[in-house]
Amino acid sequence: MNQLAGYDCCLDLVLNQVDQGVHIVDCAGMTIFYNETAAEVEGLQPADVIGKHVLQVYPSLTLETSSLMEVLASGKPIMNQQQTIVSRNGRIITIHYSTIPLYREGKLVGACDMSRDITKIKELSEQVMDLQVELLGTKGANKEKAKMREVKFAKYTFNDIIGSHDSIVKLKVIGQRVAATSSPILVIGETGAGKELVVQSIHNASTRKNGPFIAQNCAAFPATLLESILFGTVKGSFTGAENRPGLFELADGGTLFLDEINSMPMELQSKLLRVLQDGSLRRVGDTHVREVNTRIITCTNVDPEEAVRNKELRIDLYYRLNVVSLRVAPLRERKSDIPGLVVHFINLYNAKLGCHVEGIREEVSEIFYRYTWPGNVRELQHAIEHAMNVVSGPFISVDHLPEHLRQYAVVEDEQSYHFEEGQSLPSILKHVERTTLIQALAQFGGNISRTAAYLGIPRQTIQYKLKTHGLIDRIRNNNFVMGGSGQVEKT
Predict the structure, then answer these.
(1) pLDDT digits (tens, 9 = 90+) for 128-149
(2) Where does residue 442 rank: exposed (0-12), middle (13-18), buried (19+ CB within 10 A)?
(3) Boundary (domain end) residue, out of 414, 435, 469
(4) Residue 70 pLDDT > 60, yes or no?
(5) Residue 195's closest CA among 100, 49, 328, 62?
(6) 340 and 311 in a common domain
(7) CATH of the domain at 433
(8) What is the pLDDT of residues 225-234, one digit of tens each?
(9) For a disulfide at 201, which of 158, 270, 365, 473, Cβ 3.0-4.6 Å?
(10) Are 187 and 326 in contact (CB under 8 A)?
């Protein structure tokens, strides 16, 4: 019998009334008491915590970083500390805590953590500091840099990333850890998965958060213009050129986010590599070397190793950018997050559009779970926004969804099949093959290569069967069979 199990029930009543979170574990780290204040702060239920190991409840912690586990190991108290954790429901919380060992008759029998949520206090203090830095920094700073800071503002934090799926919790945990360094980061994810949200969160969690955050899409400009934008120019370097700093200089002391890095022209990739290696650059047409302290975070919506094989990305640059790699899982891999995202977007557009929508119908929820979301979270957001513009009642129904989602529901109905008496085996096999092909393509977002690998047949065979079964036009006209990049994959 556990030595702490005999505590009087009156003590439970008292501990549930205090304004601090109280979390008690036994000597093995298993939770034996978790009060209501702690549950309210962390968004959990006591029943979800009691009987579970502390590291199971807080996936962001380890044996070395958990104060409860540290106290159990050392037998010594930890007093008046601050810690940021990711709870099991994905929420990031900053707490002020003290953790003490519990002894009975000289024997260590457990540990007690007493904490207070200071997340809001921390955020307010940081906002005051940001305002002070902005007031001081813009008085004597370069006007162009001050203007750039106002235009390019990173507004998102890790708490804006909605989801409690394991992949999202892990992403938040690792993202917070790497935010403390200045190493290059490569964020990989499909279009609409939320890559820039992650990048801005990393910037705002770093020591560079008071510096500028500048984003640039590498596919937006031709090579010559992109070079001058990134590295700056000197007067006379070409017709009309002026002395102008590039984005690397403007982001000095902050973060430069380069999106679609695989679209950067190869001749610029070598120049970018030099900046990453020694922290210095030359403006276009200049001989003077300038030092910069800019953190580089890059994104790609394609497999970077595939981009290397296709000679879209230099292999030496890839290894330099890929010091830390973060993958943002597509929505089809974390469908358990869809309900939370739906609630978030409904609340967002209720406020923006003046609506009073309460939720979605069950049949809409079923479509959302069956659909493969090639456009990911952004596509879900647009679907909710579309519905909110046409809905007239408190609930979103199938009729309020965009047409391609309604068609997808019809596609699912098509896949049910009843054999008829006298039907030939070839016709049955043809239908089964067609149905299997549709389901596999939907599962992999229309990616033909992945579908071929999953079915164990060559890519060319998939292309042939698409023609045989009359599915090519269907692929081009329906989003559920689009490639992971958001573009229809050519067959």
Answers:
(1) 545 644 554 544 444 444 334 3
(2) buried
(3) 414
(4) yes
(5) 328
(6) no
(7) 1.10.10
(8) 788 889 888 8
(9) 158
(10) yes
